[in-house]
Amino acid sequence: MAVSDTQSPARRKNVIAWISLGVSLLALGLKYAAWAYSGSVALKSDALETVINVAAAIGGLWAIHLAERPADDNHTYGHYKAEYLSAIIESAMVLVTALLIARESYDGFMHPQAIHAPWIGITLNGAATVVNLGWGLTLLRIGRRIRSPALVAGGQHVLSDVWTGCGLIAGLALLPFTGWHWLDPAIAALIAVNVLRVGWDMLRQSVSGLMDEAPDSATLTKLHDIIAEKAIGALEAHDIRIREVGAITFIEFHLVVPGTMTVGVVHDICDRIEAGLRQALGRCVINIHVEPEHKAKNMGIVLAHATTAS
Q1: 3-state SS assignment for residue 193
Q2: Which end of the chain is less crowded, N or C, counting CB atoms within 10 A of the terminal residue's CB?
Q3: What sign results for the dihedral spanned by CA atoms 42, 48, 51, 56?
Q4: Using 50, 70 and 90 to split pLDDT, how confident is the model at 4?
Q5: Which of 1.20.1510.10, 3.30.230.10, 3.40.630.30, 3.40.50.150 would CATH assign to domain 9-210?
Q6: What pLDDT, on the 0 to 100 scale, is given for residue 7?
């Protein structure tokens, strides 16, 4: 199933979520086979992490479907934050997985066992790692382009699995030559630490989205520049607020205009500003509160070109 740039964002995210589920199931099958053939604690730990990938893909399908539902009487701003909820749930699952892997590592240290058929296990796990690398990069690229927290979180999780797999393969490849049985649980312990780090980072980003954290300075600068460019005839823009919820940007500010300006002219100015913001930032919900000139605060965006307006 191909992912086309001509599809709507909602359709594209739904297609990607279904592909994610298929890729996760394929990787899980390969990693389970790798553990079954070898008996390696590290490979078992890696397979445990992939179980979370499958659960996360199912959760992502639910979140994306819910996030695209239109606003209703109970959710007048829409359901966009459902993707953040999905990302938080996935983050929590990743943290729990880290603890399970740590327990497996501890058991491996206490009861070390020889690995059977290590090269078969390494080969199978390597195939799963290659699959995850391609898909993880795809999820990150598309998720960032269409501003989907669920897809970005999924991509970060999958790529953490890739780096884990690379370290795991390198470590297990040494076992047949060194005979260091402790290396297997040691690798599992490193996997647990990496999974814990990724889960914490995912949780932090998702909570920031739910708390309406302001976007980066580059986005704010772009917003100010667009208002200054399009608000010809107005005097000032202040009390500017912006928040990003998934693929939607919510913007509100006060626009000060001359007291003699007609409603029609003010409406045209607002239309120009809204069109410029949507062209630059994509899907936006914009609320502009118009005020007369005596409400100016001499702060925010002072529009120097206002005196040239007729």
Answers
A1: helix
A2: C
A3: negative
A4: very low
A5: 1.20.1510.10
A6: 53
